[in-house]
Amino acid sequence: MTQDTAPGGALDLPGYARVYSGKVRELYAPLDADGTPSHELLLLVASDRISAYDHVLDSVIPDKGRILTQLSLWWFEQFASLVPNHVVSVDVPPQVEGRAILVRRLQMLPVECIGRAYLTGSGLAEYRESGSVCGVNLPEGLTEASPLPEPIFTPTTKAPVGEHDQPMTFAQVEAEVGPELAAAARDMTTRILTRGNEIAAERGILIADTKVEFGVRDSRLVLADEVLTPDSSRFWRAAEHEVGRPQTSYDKQYVRDWLTSPESGWDRHSGDAPPALPQDVVRATRDTYVAAYESITGRAFD
C-alpha cells in the first residue's frame, strides 16, 4: 500500500509533525521555532483514499484529494458571509500543493452534522420503519428521492474508523454539546444546505443531503474540514430527478453500487474488508468527481 491507500502512511514534510490520520485526511502541525507543534495551526491534507460503508478501500481515486480541496475552497468562498471557516492559507509545502490547506485549530464538535433536503439512503430506511428520521417526524407517503417540506437536521455519532455512526436525536446532541451549540449547529447545517441548493440549482444540480463539520473558536461556530463535496454530499442531476427511484449522482454512489453488486462478491454485513475496485470503476469514479467539480464551480479541472 502507498501512503494514500491507508491511514498511517506519513508524508515527508520537513517542518511539520503528523498529529492525526483519518479515513481520507491527514493532519500535520507546523513546528514552531523551538521545534514543538503549533497550538494554533494545522495542515489539513486530503489524500486520494476513498471510504465506503465505514471501510477505507485499498484502491485510490487519482486527483481526488485535489478535487475535494479545491471544491471545498470554492464553497468556503460562497459561504463567507454565512459562517466563518477555518481556512488560513493555501501556501503549503510543494509535496501537497493543491490538496492541502493551512487551517486554524478548533475544538471540534463530537457530532456528525447531517442535513437532508431529499429522502434517500439510511434516512429513507429509518423513515420506512418509524415515519421519522433522527426523531424528526415527516409527512406520510414519502418514498425514494422525495423532497422534504424543508431541510432537516439528522445528526449521528462520530464512530471510529471501521465502526458505524449511529443516529442521534436533537435532544441527544443537546446533551452532548449543550443547547446553544446544538441549536447553532442544527440551524447552520440546514442553512448551508439551503444556500448550497440555491447555488447548485443554477447549475442543474440538486443536493440531496450533506455532512458538515463544525468546530468552536472564541465561542463561535466555525465551518471546518470539507464542505459540499462528492465525499460528504449526494449530488443529483436536476433534469433527471424522479421521485420513486434511485437517482443518477455526481458522488461516490458509483463506488457504493459496485461494492453491493454481485460483481464485487462482497457482503457489506460480513465484517470482511471490501475488495479493491476494478480500474473501470476507478476511472468512472474519478470522472464523476471531476464532473461534480466542473459542474458546480464552472471551472475546468486542471
**Looking at the structure, what is the overall shape?**
globular
Number of strands: 16
Decide which structural class fits the backbone: alpha+beta
Averaging pLDDT over every residue, what do you get?
94
At the fourth level of CATH, the homologous superfamily of the largest domain is: ATP-grasp fold, B domain
**Percent range for β-strand residues:** 25-35%
- Count of discrete domains: 2
Number of helical segments with 4 or more residues? 6
What Rg, in angstroms, do the CA atoms define?
19 Å
Tell me which CATH architecture of the largest domain applies here.
2-Layer Sandwich
Word description of this protein:
- Strands 8, 9, 12, 13, 14, 15 and 16 form a 7-stranded antiparallel β-sheet that branches. This protein has a 5-stranded antiparallel β-sheet with strand order 1-2-3-7-6.
- The protein folds into 2 domains: 16-104, Phosphorylase Kinase, domain 1 (2-Layer Sandwich); 107-263, D-amino Acid Aminotransferase, Chain A, domain 1 (2-Layer Sandwich), CATH 3.30.470.20.
- It contains 6 helices and 16 strands.
- The protein has helices at 64-78, 121-130, 170-177, 179-201, 253-259, 279-297, and strands at 16-21, 25-30, 41-46, 49-52, 55-60, 87-89, 100-104, 107-108, 111-118, 132-133, 136-137, 147-153, 156-157, 205-217, 220-224, 233-237.
- The protein is of the alpha+beta class.
Which terms summarize this structure?
6 helices; seven-stranded antiparallel beta sheet; globular; alpha+beta; Phosphorylase Kinase, domain 1; 2 domains; 27% helix
